[in-house]
Amino acid sequence: MKTALTIAGSDSGGGAGIQADLKAFAANGVFGMSVITAVTAQNTQEVRSVQNIDPAIIRDQIEAVFDDLPVDAVKIGMLSSADIVRTVAEALKKYSPELVVLDPVMVSKGGHHLLEQDAIQALKEQIIPIASIVTPNIPEAEVLTGKRILTQEDMKEACITIKTLGCRTVLLKGGHFDGPPHDLFFDGEEFHWIEGERIITKNTHGTGCTLSSAIAANLAKGASMLEAVKQAKQFITIAILHSLSLGHGHGPTNHFYELYQKANLKNSRY
Ligand SMILES: Nc1ncnc2c1ncn2[C@@H]1O[C@H](COP(=O)(O)OP(=O)(O)OP(=O)(O)O)[C@@H](O)[C@H]1O
Ligand SMILES: Cc1ncc(COP(=O)(O)O)c(N)n1
């Protein structure tokens, strides 16, 4: 069985972070492993508090996994502080994983900062260059490039700028624009629009986490980068379409809808 490792924060509400990543790995048929960078007290409405994990323990988790287990792909999510960014970068350089998906998580849906301001430069200098793909949403791409993104032409320019930071490819997600959520993939030579249709729902907690983890799972299974992205877009679209109205805020997406359909368990409560 192929494997994927997520390096991210824990979401007690289960819709984003490590919990979403492991569910997306399972739903996409790879064995999931985790390195926890921070613990958030979180639900569908808000992030109440954050406890960063001691960088030494983060390094130990990464070493414990790589020293023993095969890692076919890595997904990186919430890194929280500059110290954690540096620790993860150093530890990953030791093992040089081939396939690294970076979701540059900065702010939660409810507006809570999940990456400290002084960590952004470290992320740009130390993590982006080791990424096979970086998957910012529009606000994150604006922070990374220092430019407003208002049009599809701006999205193209942002992809080019982010690529110059040293990653192999970029997927700029269009979910934060009004209108259809078209994402833009750039491999340094060609642009590909990964088109979507907007689903009207408030249950979009953890969409970025789920998408990036599905990309990592597809890469682990041997897909090309573009194919991994296209399949992951289909997966997140179905997960949003059948999202779960749990909690009082932004509910989680449904990672297992497709699996239940395939298993013909149509009467399941999903
Ligand atoms: N309402 C929607 N309907 C269909 N697709 C959507 C919708 N909202 C987001 N998407 C898609 O979901 C994926 C994740 O995009 P989004 O821009 O929401 O990421 P994000 O802001 O990083 O997510 P999060 O921070 O919630 O984890 C993208 O492919 C985007 O186009
Ligand atoms: C631990 C963790 N990681 C990532 C997110 C981003 O997800 P969202 O933007 O949907 O709040 C989050 N809320 N919590």
Automatic annotation (TrEMBL):
Reactions mediated catalytically: 4-amino-5-hydroxymethyl-2-methylpyrimidine + ATP = 4-amino-2-methyl-5-(phosphooxymethyl)pyrimidine + ADP + H(+); 4-amino-2-methyl-5-(phosphooxymethyl)pyrimidine + ATP = 4-amino-2-methyl-5-(diphosphooxymethyl)pyrimidine + ADP
Pathway: Cofactor biosynthesis; thiamine diphosphate biosynthesis; 4-amino-2-methyl-5-diphosphomethylpyrimidine from 5-amino-1-(5-phospho-D-ribosyl)imidazole: step 3/3; Cofactor biosynthesis; thiamine diphosphate biosynthesis; 4-amino-2-methyl-5-diphosphomethylpyrimidine from 5-amino-1-(5-phospho-D-ribosyl)imidazole: step 2/3
UniProt EC number: 2.7.1.49, 2.7.4.7
CDD domains: HMPP_kinase
GO molecular function per UniProt: hydroxymethylpyrimidine kinase activity; phosphomethylpyrimidine kinase activity
Keyword Magnesium: no
Domain Pyridoxamine kinase/Phosphomethylpyrimidine kinase, chain residue ranges per copy: 11-254
Family matches, as Pfam families: Phos_pyr_kin
InterPro entries found in the cross-reference section: HMP/HMP-P_kinase_dom, PM/HMP-P_kinase-1, Ribokinase-like
Keyword list, A-Z: Kinase, Thiamine biosynthesis, Transferase
Similarity annotation: Belongs to the ThiD family.
Keyword field contains Kinase: yes
Official protein name in the record: Hydroxymethylpyrimidine/phosphomethylpyrimidine kinase
